[in-house]
Specification:
- Strands 28-32-33-37-36-35-34 form a seven-stranded mixed β-sheet. Strands 3, 4, 5, 6, 9 and 10 form a six-stranded antiparallel β-sheet that branches.
- It has six domains: about 60 residues, Phenylalanyl-tRNA Synthetase, Chain B, domain 1; about 100 residues, OB fold (Dihydrolipoamide Acetyltransferase, E2P), CATH 2.40.50.140; about 200 residues, Phenylalanyl-trna Synthetase, Chain B, domain 3 (Phenylalanyl-tRNA Synthetase, Chain B, domain 3, 3-Layer(bba) Sandwich), CATH 3.50.40.10; about 60 residues, 2-Layer Sandwich (Phenylalanyl-tRNA Synthetase, Chain B, domain 1); about 200 residues, 2-Layer Sandwich (BirA Bifunctional Protein, domain 2); about 90 residues, Ferrodoxin-fold anticodon-binding domain (Alpha-Beta Plaits, 2-Layer Sandwich).
- The termini are far apart.
- The radius of gyration is 39 Å and the shape is elongated.
- Helix 6 packs across helix 7.
- Helices cover about 25% and strands about 30% of the residues.
- It is of the alpha+beta class and about 800 residues long.
- A hairpin with a 2-residue loop joins strand 7 and strand 8.
């Protein structure tokens, strides 16, 4: 929110410097900084009156002007096409400096002396308009200081507001905060209006609310005899200071009052409102509507529209329609001031992808009572600047009055939360300064009536926060909290997450952290079928964007989307995933995910980067299992749709499935624009916490040597290495101490549909030295058993 200090001084003349105002607001929780400081600008620039204009004898596009600047008449050469005698202009005299640093000097232009410069708005950095010189209204005294007359030497502050402080999205809202902390009375703008008593607004318009749940109140008043024209400079200057582009006096008034009061208004060209009838209704399913920006939208019953007797003329609270906009020929307007349900406006704005100053404020809540003040203020300005007449009264459709909330605050609660003593008189003073009316008090508690513009005040703790803001957080002394001693300590789940986070970082992986939201397109990219658990998505009632509409069912989409454009990555994330279990409930689980790219960083002396494969991920999985205390991990074939069919596995320990890993399918890689292979893994940490690893038992060192043998067998390709290892241990009996696979070979003379698997075997007798004959007998039993059970033959 941009704030003009000069404009602010009109509402609350504190006399404070912009720096002090910024500090005060920041101390109140409204972080404020100076973004545009024009103090000291425009020195040597004065009001001038063009007395005459003649053509330059040596240049077709230049003019010779005589300009009255008070104590002197200056000869000025001007190149603007719109300069003319009788105009009131801004003159930079000799010695002045323009905002861009250019010094004005007396010099000859094509042989003619020029004693200054007639300025345009762009040269004064007041707007981007550089089509001609800036002209001011008549009646200004020549020679008067330009900087002193039009608030141009202004300072603009930027207030960074949290979403709950919609009441501060206006000049009056910020002024209200300053009034409460400084004690300076707030001076509200003038709303005086001479109405045309010969006709009433109700003679011209009729309002009907068909959706009172989405629009509790709608008011309209009619102004006739208007003339659309360029707004006066003072209004254009103030609008520019707060980042609003001027259009014409009729439209500018609604924008001006929006920034001043914080309540959005809309002006309809009354001639375009069929039958003078206003109907506030839900849109028809599939109804088409073209907004002011020229874009066509397809509506649904979730959207609220303002319609006339024939068609929709505005999206309620979001944007007006092209079919009823105010034009240069507009002479009659219907000025709308309404209150729309914040969630309805938010849903329409996000669903249609339309953002406006109006929707930004309606989404955060506006003042259902203050809209009358805003409407009268706009009508007063419109009549003043447009030369029209306001018809008597207004049409006010307000079926059910919205009552103010009543909230009680206790002194004891304030002191318990803040940790400092605050007198009840001080509490009452603060809340009264914030325009909260006292309902009752007993000396220990105070009940107040919360104004409609404070949507964020619902409970006692909200009032405590208000008291804390104005007492000052710096008054709260830091004290160590009393924390009860925990008998159980950290939960197993938290210990596991901490242990894995430290371990994965220690083996060279980088931790990532993604948003907990996901889009339907992410699920589609992963080729997830309709019956898959990922499709049981938990929807978000109020999504931040039109893309992120659901909570994530897995960590993988977020991590894979972060890989795009990277050369080498080894990253992990530990977070919560969500799965819808009923229309109103969802299941949450802690998961850990790892992503490895095919490319790996080369070592200093290696030169060429090595390539990763699925066995690198297998090593990470075994490392994680070992760190958590699992002595043995099993990898079994799985069938996840986003992995290659034969390059994936479920991860088990102690007979419990802990997760899965695999190589991402190329269709998914293409959808994410990833140009290398990806290997991913996901662990269910809740399953890990529920199935702790058995206690590690230490074995004494053996005193006897072992015997090692290598075994290579040829089997069908369908036979797994795991089944071979289990058969070796089974037939080798107690003498088999260790079985390790060291080679798999396919092709050559092995035969089609066959593969060679080689193991390193270690035989050991714990009671005595094993002789070679005993090891050979065990070896032969293993070969015979593999042949009977798995059809294996020695290679």
């Amino acid at each position: 929110m941009l704030i003009s200090v000069k404009w602010m001084e009109e509402l609350i003349p504190t006399g404070l410097s912009p720096e002090n105002i910024a500090v005060l607001l920041t101390d109140l929780g409204l972080e404020t900084s100076i973004v545009d400081d024009r103090r000291g600008w425009y020195q040597g620039m004065v009001i001038g009156k063009v007395l005459s204009k003649e053509s330059h004898p040596n240049a077709d596009k230049l003019s010779l002007c005589k300009v009255d600047v008070g104590e002197a008449t200056l000869d000025i050469v001007c190149g603007a096409p719109n300069v003319g005698a009788g105009q009131t202009v801004v003159v930079a005299r000799v010695g002045a400096a323009l905002p861009d640093g250019m010094k004005i000097e007396k010099r000859k232009v094509r042989g003619q002396v020029s004693e200054g410069m007639i300025c345009s708005e762009s040269e004064l950095m007041l707007s981007t308009d550089h089509d001609g010189i800036m002209t001011l209204e008549d009646g200004l005294a020549p020679g008067a200081s330009f900087g002193d007359m039009y608030e141009v030497c202004d300072t603009v502050l930027e207030v960074d507001l949290t979403p709950n402080r919609g009441d501060c999205l206006s000049m009056i809202g910020i002024a209200r905060e300053l009034a409460a902390t400084t004690g300076t009375p707030l001076r509200m703008p003038d709303t005086s209006l001479d109405e045309d008593t010969q006709a009433r607004s109700s003679d011209k318009i009729d309002v009907q609310i068909e959706a009172p749940d989405l629009c509790p109140r709608y008011t309209g008043r009619v102004i006739t005899g208007l003339t659309a024209a360029k707004s006066p400079f003072w209004m254009r200057r103030r609008l520019a200071a707060v980042g609003v582009r001027a259009i014409n006096n009729l439209v500018d008034v609604t924008n001006y009052v929006l920034m001043e009061t914080g309540h959005p208004l809309h002006a309809f060209d009354l001639r375009e409102v069929s039958g003078g009838r206003i109907v506030v209704r839900r849109a028809n399913d599939g109804e088409r509507f073209t907004t002011l920006d020229g874009k066509s939208h397809q509506l649904s019953p979730d959207n609220l529209v303002i319609a006339d007797a024939k068609r929709a003329v505005a999206l309620a609270g979001v944007m007006g329609g092209e079919n009823s906009e105010v034009k240069d020929t507009t002479s009659e307007v219907m000025l709308e001031a309404a209150f729309f349900d914040p969630s309805s406006v938010r849903r329409t704005s996000k669903g249609l992808g339309i953002k406006s100053e109006s929707s930004y404020r309606f989404e955060r809540g506006c003042d259902v009572e203050g809209l009358i003040f805003a409407q009268d203020r706009a009508a007063s300005l419109m009549v003043s600047l447009g030369g029209g007449k306001a018809l008597a009264g207004r049409v006010d459709a307000y079926p059910r009055k919205i009552e103010k909330r009543k909230v009680t605050i206790r002194q004891a609660r304030v002191e318990a939360i803040m940790g400092v003593s605050v007198e009840m008189e001080r509490i009452e003073e603060i809340l009264t300064g914030l325009e909260m009316e006292k309902v009752s008090t007993d000396g220990q508690a105070l009940m107040v009536e919360v104004p409609h513009f404070r949507f964020d005040i619902e409970r006692e703790i909200d009032l405590v926060e208000e008291v804390a803001r104005f007492v000052g957080y710096d008054k709260v002394k830091p004290t160590a909290p009393e924390v009860p001693v925990s008998v159980t300590g950290l939960s197993r789940s938290l210990r596991i997450r901490r242990a894995l986070r430290r371990h994965l970082c220690s083996i060279g992986l980088m931790e990532g952290m993604r948003y907990s939201f996901v889009s339907m397109s992410d699920i589609d990219r992963f080729l997830i079928p309709a019956e898959h658990p990922w499709r049981r998505l938990a929807p978000i009632d109020n999504p931040l964007t039109s893309e992120w509409t659901h909570m994530r069912p897995s960590l993988l989409p977020g991590l894979v989307s972060a890989i795009k454009g990277t050369r080498e990555t080894s990253v992990f994330e530990i977070g919560v995933v969500f799965q819808q279990t009923s229309p109103t409930q969802s299941d949450e689980r802690w998961m850990a995910a790892v992503v490895l790219t095919e490319n790996a960083n080369p070592g200093l002396w290696e030169g060429r980067a090595p390539k990763r494969d699925l066995f690198h991920m297998k090593g990470v999985a075994e490392s994680m299992a070992s760190h958590l205390g699992y002595s043995e991990v099993t990898f079994l074939p799985s069938s996840h749709p986003y992995y290659y069919p034969k390059r994936q596995a479920d991860i088990l320990a102690g007979g419990v499935k802990l997760g899965s890993m695999g190589q991402i399918r190329p269709e998914t890689l293409g959808a994410y624009q990833v140009d290398q292979e990806l290997f991913t893994m996901e662990w269910d940490l809740d399953a890990v916490a529920a199935n702790p690893a058995p206690k590690t038992m230490c074995e004494k060192l053996t005193k006897f040597p072992s015997v090692k043998r290598d075994l290579a067998v040829v089997v069908d390709e369908s036979v797994t290495a795991r089944s071979l290892a289990e058969a070796i241990k089974k037939h080798g009996g107690r003498l088999v101490r260790q079985v390790e696979i060291f080679d798999i070979y396919v092709g050559g003379k092995i035969g089609e549909g066959k593969k060679s698997v080689a193991f390193s075997l270690e035989f050991l007798d714990e009671t005595r030295t094993l002789v070679d004959e005993e090891a050979s007998n065990a070896f032969e039993k293993i070969v015979e058993g593999l042949g009977r059970d798995l059809g294996a033959r020695l290679r």
